[in-house]
Amino acid sequence: MLLARFQYELLEAGCDEAGRGCLAGPVFAAAVILPHNFEHHKLNDSKQLTEEVRYQLRSEIEANAIAFAVASVDNTEIDEINILNASFLAMHRAVALLHIEPEFLIIDGNRFKKYNNIPHECIIKGDGKYFSIAAASILAKTYRDDYMKQLALEHPEYDWHNNKGYPTVKHRETVLKIGITPYHRQTFRVTDPQLSFF
Fold it and tell me: Which 3 state secondary structure label does DSSP give 182?
């Protein structure tokens, strides 16, 4: 079972992002404030869950959260400020959208840029340790997946409906064969899928 809080004195929000390693599409982030007594035996890092369970949990998170918000930074902004800064910006935007301002942030990962002087703690693999970060990972992942499925209708040849913009063999082969779309990150390198690295 994950932990409810990093600390109990201040109103705490968990933050996480999805889509950092993708070749196309935005990076999404979510911020979630859960009740002190919230717990769920299925809630975990979104990468450890099936798609069906992620969407089930999204509904429960949204119904039970004190506050939640999802935000994104598009591929053009990613190319301008780099993916690390874009991830921080997406999390800042998500926190800014919360209708209740948190007093403390717990962030998945080992780096973060301070937001509005709100104290924070970075937690490596935090989405597998704290409910609020796990909830944020699920919201960021599912909202981004929904967005990429919409883009897939416009560009079905890249198989975004399945790969969500991640650098699968089929995705990279298609980019090398026919080029990029306006949704691709131009600063991301696309290597030949046939190359092997040891």
Answer: coil
Q: Indicate whether this model's pTM tops 0.85.
A: yes
In the CATH scheme, what is the code of domain 12-178? 3.30.420.10
Full strand arrangement of the beta sheet holding 27-33: 67-73, 27-33, 12-18, 104-108, 120-123
Would you list the domain boundaries of the chain? 12-178
Contact 118, 104 (CB under 8 A): yes
Taking the chain (198 residues) in runs of 10, the rounded mean pLDDT of each run is 94 98 97 93 88 96 98 98 97 98 97 97 97 97 98 97 95 94 93 58
Distance CA 134, CA 139 (A): 9
Cα–Cα distance measured from residue 43 to residue 197, given in angstroms and rounded to the nearest whole number: 36
Is-contact 66 127, C-beta < 8 A?
no
SS3 25: coil
